[in-house]
Write a structure and sequence with these properties.
heterodimer, A: about 500 residues, alpha/beta, Amidase signature (AS) enzymes, about 10% strand, globular, B: about 475 residues, alpha+beta, Arc Repressor Mutant, subunit A, 3 domains, 3-stranded antiparallel β-sheet, 16 strands, elongated
Amino acid sequence: MRLFETSAIQIKNKILSKEIRATDFIKIVFDHIKNVEPNIQSFITLNEDEAIKKAIEVDKKIENSENVGALAGIPVAVKDNICTKNLYTTCASNILKTFIPPYDAFVIKRLKEEDAIIVGKTNLDEFAMGSSTENSAYKITRNPWNLECVPGGSSGGSAAAVAADFSLMALGSETGGSVRQPASLCGVVGIKPTYGRVSRYGLVAFGSSLDQVGTLSKDVRDAALLLRVIAGYDLHDTTSANIAVPDYLDTIDSGVKGLRIGIPKEYFAVSFNDDVCKALKDALKIYERLGAQVVDISLPHTEYAVAVYYIIANAEASSNLARYDGVRYGYRTFKPNGIMDMYYRTRSEGFGNEVKRRIMLGNYALSSGYYDAYYLKASKVRNLIKIDFDIAFEKVDCIICPTSPVPAFKIGERANNPLEMYLSDIYTIPANLAGIPGISIPCGFSKDGLPIGMQILGKHFEEKKLLQIAYAFERETDFHLKKPALKISPV
Amino acid sequence: MTYEVVIGLETHAELATVTKLFCGCSTQFGVDPNMQVCPVCLGMPGVLPVMNKKAFEYALKAAVALNCKIDEFTNFDRKSYYYPDLPKNYQVSQNYHNLGADGYLDISVNGVTNRIRIHNVHLEEEAGKLIHPEEVGADYSLVDFNRAGVPLLEIVSYPDMRRVDEVESYMQTLRKILLYTEVSDCKMQEGSLRFEASISLRKKGCDKLGNRVEIKNLNSMKSVLKAIEYETIRQRDVLDRGETVGRETRLWDEVNEKSARMRSKEESQDYRYFPEPDLLPVLIDEKWLRAIKDTIPELPLARRQRFIEGFALSGYDASLLIDEKILADFFEECVKILNRPKAFCNWITNDLLREVKDRKLDIYHLKIKPKQLAALVEIIEKGTISSTIAKEVFSEMIQTGKDPKTVVEEKKLVQISDEGLIEAIITKVISGNPDAVEDYKKGKKNALTFLVGQVMKETKGKANPKMVNELLEKKVRV
């Protein structure tokens, strides 16, 4: 096994014990990126110079026996909708092609404080709107397991970067499944924390009441480590929770004996991919063998989740994206003829089709005379969906279901069918609407050798229990250790 | 045809917080463009608002002072419209759950009190300011975001006013309440207090309201009144011609004293309000509300009444004093030191206000302090200086902030009350003006005044006038 194929915790221990220097490791990682990235296209911007500088700093600290952070020397990739001071943050949009934030997002500040090394900014669907990373204005990211397939999205660049060992971990963001779904399609671990667990300050807003920064990693223990770093209260985000962050690792190996796992009948009522179905059934058998009890539950308002989501997310997006007008930063059209012309042309030229579609849908849902019928009603149904989960969690410790109804699909296959693309998120969206945490972990492979992900959902702020349940499965299986066969790109 | 004019006002007042509504930037006025900005108030990608508690409490205080009902639950909404001075192209405001609703403001016109209902009071963020270059043919405009994000209070009245004197009284009374509660400095010249009027006409006796016209860009109270008068005539002419008044928004042109149509109702914007997801709703419990109520001082009308009853001032004098809270406070400070309300009232309403006007002084930063004015009144009473000299001393005090005693000593203004000294001067004056003495003896009373004047002139006004009168009369009679 090559060095960069190990987990973050393993590498951190090697760096701390001076078995390898952070500087040497980061150089190995960048050599690997240079060899393979042309095939994958997971990054929009690489941060090599700064990364090496940071690695030197970490090595110096270790040499001088100074305290180092929890992520000392660990290469981390960051989704390009999370603001990084002095480093391009484009949201994979032409409208922010030239945007360099003057400030760090809360999560970036935390990464830096804990001595992580930021490798680069990863590709995404423009403004995180999509489930395949095909909506990027710059490039199409390929699934490391099959270059013909999408990595999922919208955090496809981050998921592919971890799967291809370009970084040991990555940050993504979720509005409706954008961490869990690509994690599932790329065979890595992805967490969407409870709404309010991680500060949104510096995460470029899409659907503010749904957005949350999430983690992508090679295994569950690395996820626990990264989540602990980025979670916590932030004065700059009123919606972040002032609840202490536990040590997610200390009791992670407590197992699942006696725990109750809920299986929502509505999620299994629809037909989905046979391979996914079989992987899930096998996984549940493992859990039963480990002493967990599998029980049927009902989430009766599930069928409305996708519709509710696309009203709320798009309404909020239409407002959040209003600021990209060419006045203060980012793209501005050439020689506009007055202010209205500047607005029209800047936005027409700056945004891609999917973003425009959602802005229009969102504005429609909020417009006078339609607000009550769409946004207000959607908000009410959203509350019913949340109550569904509250009731379910009175009976069970967690809910398990597929992360995605299908393994990675082919590039272009769904690009012209927005509705079908929207249904990619059918299993992930309810957690965002309810604000509950979810984790996707590898649980098998399709006949075609594509990874399959299993999703575990829990109660608000019960990430610790989710990680424990996920780890119980992971240590019994080796799906997370399988590696895609990466080819060195022709020079 | 006789019409009834129906007028409502929307008032915007910038709240007097040190920092902006959602970030830590300063709200100081008059700083170089874009020197008081940060990623939050510039609407950079990824930023989030954090509510300024002080601003919220100021808004709450104003709502309570305007007798509004305060709901336990209040929330913020996004109001969407595109304008280059609005960084996010939406304004965080309130629409579905205003902070205060159904209040009122009592106004007094010619001694008659009238109640104007307040529809709602809410908190929102201020926009920036466009700067259009003066050069001919410039193809750009600039934006100054220093003001963007300053907390702004909006007070919406019901259309309960019928005449301009009511509107004037409403504006003045509202301004006084905002000043008294210290939630806004209400400086119209700095734009921290602004009004928008909506006007409609209907036939006398008709219940149904006519089509409403809103007027913006009213930069002073005078403009508000002029614009209403102009609009009344315009609408009356339209109605007299048998046409209907269109619902529209008009812009007031201060220079030409005219208004022009900005947009019609059909062109009006759909603000697409929805609850601001980046801010949590605010719950106002009993305890908090009570604490806010406790901070509300005595309001102008109540204070006026107390001045009339407690200090035996005339209604006119009391009104003059309460007009500016700072003057009323000054007055009360003086009375606390020395119980001479009438004297202080005169000094403040006459001399002080005149000096302020003549010398263009800022009443918020007066150099003279209450205890100095009290000391002045005291030395007049003691006879150290005459009341004529006192005016000169006062003028020096207000300019320099010196104590009255210092001024009197420096300028050698102590009153001459030495009988021998005065008599000596009188003797000199009498011998120098035998004709006047003769005239007086013949019965011309004016002659005595002339002689007093001569004595005062000799003493540079410092002689005790009472003594001069008495001694002179005694002397010339002989």
